[in-house]
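Hi everyone,

Forwarding the result from last night's run.
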Amino acid sequence: MRLISLVGLAALSSLGAGQTAKIQIWEKPISPGLMYRMQVDTQTPLILHALRISSKTPGLTALPELAGHTVNEEGTVKGRLSPGQMAAQSSAIAAINGDYFSFTQGAPIGLMVRSGELIDTPFKARSTFGWGPSTAAIATCTTSVELTPEDGSATKVDGVNQPCGQNQIELYTPAEGTAQFSGPHTAVLINVPQSQWTPNCTVDASVDSLLPVSSDAKVPEGKAILVGTGDKVALLNALRPGEKIRIQIRTEGFDWEKIENVIGGGPVLVKDGKVAVNAEAEGFPASFYAKRHPRTMIGKTQEGDIWLVVVDGRQEISSGATLEEGAKLMIQLGCSDALNLDGGGSTNLSLLGLSVNRPSDGAERPVSNGILVMGPKVPVYVGELKIVAAASVGLAGKPSVHLTLNGSIVPNADVIWSAQGAAWIDQGGSLHPLELGKVTVRASAYGKVLSATISVVEKAPGRKRRRKTPPHVRPTTP
């Protein structure tokens, strides 16, 4: 672990003459090529949590993922799960929330590409972040989709795996999971043998059958569904079983020979190492970009590393950041380019089974997609792990909490801390009470997650005679 105390490092707030801001930073290695950082600025106030992913580390990858792996998956909340749930279901080291989304259905608003597979086309044309094995970039992508019957002319398809509006045609692929329809419509099941839906593809298919009118339909592998409404119903009704059709998708914005993954968001924060917030151009109101809110951001360094960053907000201990302040934070982290992602109550970073930040809703919010960090599993060590802390602490105190393994103190560098409720905890293991009540302290170490509940009271109980501090211990791999 590296603890850095910095005085006067680019404080976000305006300080008076002679004033300086103290910023503390803890850095902890999680695995080869993956570093966790907690940054606390008590002046603004602002608390930041971040992961730096080295792109050159074998076996370590960042992957955009949907809740439940498909847009509308059974077992999700309208196509949504929390980042912690997404990490657990994929055995990921970490997960962070991703694009904006609708609360009523699970499709992300922006373009999403997962390991070369087109998940959905953008509902709104906003900036996206794309990356591959050797590069990362930011671009605003445009997508066109056309349907050409065997004996007819090309017709525009309005989108892929997005809600079908009035007088539209929508294409649903297996990445949709269960396609959901509303109002009068025609749905056509098509056969799609030996093809992959990519950002740029020509797919030769054949009509299977008209589907009965329903509110939803599962999209099987090797199939797809075309849905039409309003004045587009007649075109789909004219298709006959066995008829050959062609679907062409063209997406511009990235060099698709280098980019395999894309997640939507917006607006741009940093370009070529400079603040380049383009919120108005992307249709964001001033209340969104000029006020401090919780933020989630992604950026790349000149070396090709990727930063995943969350800033807590709407809280006494962390007021959040404006978009310009978020851009400056990303530049401080060494980002040459950076993009804003969905924030507010969605802002969340799950690491090794813990929500390391404090979501402004008071709990993790289910979201439609996110970014997973995949890599080697953390070894699980044999032995008794225990959080050692007082049962109650005073409101004015800052007691230390530590972890023991078989009675010996675990080095703090090996522990990731989190706390929800009446106190917050730094990565040095110091508890900071906020109000009277209960706080749940959680610790992740050696492949295990533990928790303890502590009461915050007006005045701490009298101290007992201290025992001799046990020695520190680093376990050996079994």
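Residues 2-140+257-374 form one domain.

Cheers,
N.
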